[in-house]
Specification:
single chain; 673 residues; eleven-stranded mixed β-sheet; two-stranded antiparallel sheet; 17 strands; 5_3_exoribonuclease; hydrolase; nuclease; exonuclease
């Protein structure tokens, strides 16, 4: 989703950063070396049908068409959403519980003629797209088959490295993409000549892309051919509906958002302060941090801050506060991708000063402005006398959350377990009172498994997506966690027009309580469910014409058993002509060519794959973190040692071990600015 209203603000303020082209002009417009696809964006495009097989087929055809049009010359990286940090789960949980109530948008009534907004049209439940479902498992399998086919039949595919990061690899899709780019830049020291193109409608990609400091990065997304709004299709556009010849323009256009042009715009503005541009990279990082104050998927939006002029605090107000903070501290808010605490506190003090007396004019259903006590009573149920102490605690939690979000965007999650423990944001006025800020988080922790995320985010109406043995845990009162899944709950419109922005007043999930409740049920999973519930690595596809392929073909013992394994991987950068940095080892998870009837139908256009021209590897693009005191140094990277040989383990065990040594457990690299 990203920052609400960000694209509207951005294109109005800096119209030259966007160019619009047709599909046939994509290659010339993007000049792409490395193409990254946010697959969930593509899935949502086709998720209007209840035919899951057709959705998968449409997604595959869409990927095929994009690659043919854009023609990446070095890399294709396809990323699906995996399990998210806990900070994201309250937002996901709110969406699922809202869906369970079938609450219509207030805006729907305005567009009754628009098929896109008719609730009855949506028959494909978005729960299918979550990690661990049968749908995402089948989609991943079909993608593997499709990629192998294209590498055998299409010359353009053979010349690129193809990486699939499916739903079993932890992390949100857009963050997996950016982490990969960041790791390659960090370990190669210089990727300035690479033209990166990220395909997604998520406005977060602009902010994430800026934080990589890659000099040649573009964000690509579909736009309405009539009104040029992001993510719209011409057939659903209100402008087209109201025209005399509806449906006359149903072609898809594409918007290319040029991040270097955005940086030049930021650089060329008159800021009335020489401090602003002493270090351009740090200034850009600061600007991203300021944008995060307008909203994100991890913190509730402040009612006082908005891009639009009717708000108490707009971007102009925030930039004024930023100028005052720079002048006072003579330093930036951020350094090397980390927030400077004193400078942040100064900024928040200045921001609070813009809401001088705590007046609160939004949401719309309040007739007039009112002050802090009524807000905290109405939204937080606070009835005690020490309002300052309580509001300061909420504001401190929020500023700590802002620190977490920025770290997540610039480096990766500082903690997989942290979350903001309130349903509402504080008033901006209370930011001025934040003094003691603890920016230390609990140990980084590890991501939950797919079924645990389902339990943490699904409502009782989604229980059928859970393993059969787990379903009673959510619905039967004899289990301690049934209190987390109420069927009756309060929904606060909170002054918003769209139901997706309503606040659902349900209890926050306690991870320890959930883990304890699930402990005795993990062993009841079937082998197929265990496979869907695993944590895994990226998959790297290599054609026989590539030097990596030759290296791995030679690495078999006399019994044809692979000697390049998870415990003994190869550093890909040591292989000649390989432009990837990271570790690879043989994928021993089974034969992907065993297709069922549905998969045969989906892949009917991509058949007859020889078995010896493409190899499938597990791929980790950063160093492993040792979890054991007993470890050995291998190629300058510390790896876990284990008494189990790969041949002695089941097909599930190697993937389950991934959580102890995978990239999501390792502190990310830090860019220097």
């Amino acid at each position: 989703m990203g920052v609400s209203g960000f694209y509207s603000y951005l294109f109005k303020k800096y119209p030259n950063i966007k160019s619009v082209c047709t599909e046939k002009n994509l290659a010339d417009e993007t000049k792409c070396h490395s193409l990254y696809l946010d697959l969930n964006h593509i899935i949502h495009k086709y998720a209007e049908s209840n035919d899951k097989n057709q959705i998968i087929k449409d997604v595959i055809e869409h990927i095929d068409r994009l690659v043919r049009s854009i023609k990446p010359s070095q890399l294709l990286y396809i990323a699906m959403d995996g399990v998210a940090p806990k900070a994201r789960m309250p937002h996901q949980r709110t969406k699922r519980f809202l869906k369970s109530k079938n609450i219509p948008d207030r805006e729907v009534n305005r567009f009754e003629t628009n098929e896109q907004h008719k609730l009855e049209k949506k028959t494909f439940d978005e729960c299918n797209i979550k990690p661990g479902t049968e749908f995402t498992c089948q989609l991943s399998k079909c993608l593997r088959y499709f990629i192998r086919n294209r590498m055998h039949t299409e010359e353009d595919w053979r010349s690129v490295n193809v990486i699939l990061s499916d739903a079993n690899v932890p992390g949100e899709g857009e963050h997996k993409i950016i982490n990969f780019i960041r790791q390659q830049r960090h370990q190669q020291n210089n990727t300035n000549g690479t033209f990166h193109v990220v395909y997604s409608s998520d406005s977060d990609l602009v902010l994430l892309g800026l934080l990589t400091h890659e000099p040649q990065m573009k964000v690509l997304c579909e736009v309405c051919a009539n009104c040029e709004k992001i993510g719209y299709h011409a057939k659903d556009c209100n402008t087209n509906k109201s025209s005399s010849t509806p449906g006359s323009n149903t072609k898809t256009n594409y918007a290319v958002i040029h991040l270097p042009k955005l940086i030049n715009n930021l650089k060329s503005q008159n800021y009335d302060s020489p401090v602003f541009l002493k270090n351009l990279e740090r200034f850009v990082d600061d600007w991203v941090l300021i944008c995060l104050l307008f909203g994100n998927d991890f913190l509730p939006k402040s009612h006082s801050i908005d891009f639009f002029d009717k708000s108490i605090i707009t971007m102009d107000h925030l930039m004024d506060a930023y100028r005052e903070a720079l002048t006072k501290n003579n330093d930036y808010l951020t350094k090397n991708g980390t927030i400077t605490k004193d400078c942040l506190l100064t900024l928040m003090e200045k921001v609070g000063g813009k809401d001088k007396d705590g007046k609160y004019r939004r949401p719309l259903y309040y007739e007039d402005k009112f002050r802090r006590p009524l807000y905290y009573k109405d939204k937080f149920g606070f009835n005690a006398t020490d309002l300052n102490t309580f509001s300061n605690k909420v504001a401190t939690d929020y500023v700590q959350g802002l620190y977490w979000v920025f770290q997540y965007y610039s480096k990766g999650p500082p903690s997989w377990n942290w979350y903001y423990p309130h349903h509402y944001a504080p008033l901006a006025y209370d930011f001025s009172n934040v003094k003691n800020l603890d920016l230390k988080f609990d140990p980084p922790g590890e991501p939950v498994r797919p079924f645990e995320q389902m339990m943490a985010t699904f409502s009782p109406k989604n229980v059928d997506y859970l393993p059969l043995a787990w379903q009673p845990i959510m619905t039967e009162e004899i289990f301690d966690i049934s209190k987390f899944y109420p069927t009756e709950f309060v929904v606060d419109p909170n002054g918003k027009e769209r139901s997706s922005q309503y606040v659902v007043l349900i209890p926050f999930i306690d991870k320890e309580t959930l883990s304890t409740a699930l402990k005795d049920f993990t062993s009841k999973l079937t082998p197929e469910e265990e496979k869907r519930n695993r944590l895994d690595y990226d998959s790297l596809f290599i054609h026989s014409s590539h030097s990596i392929h030759q290296q791995f073909r030679k690495s078999s013992d006399a019994n044809k058993k692979p000697i390049i394994t998870e415990e003994n991987p190869v550093q890909l950068q040591d292989i000649s002509d390989c432009k990837l940095v990271g570790h690879g080892w043989t994928d021993d998870t089974g034969d992907i060519s065993n297709l069922n009837a549905d998969e045969e139908a989906i892949l009917s256009d991509y058949k007859n794959i020889p078995n010896d021209e493409v190899i499938l590897l597990k791929y980790c693009h950063c160093s492993f973190r040792s979890e054991s005191v007993e470890s050995e140094k291998h190629n300058n990277v510390r790896f876990r040692t284990t008494t189990n040989q790969p041949s002695q383990r089941s097909t599930v065990q190697p993937q389950q071990q991934a959580s102890k040594s995978a990239p999501w457990c390792k502190p990310p690299p830090t860019h220097q600015n």
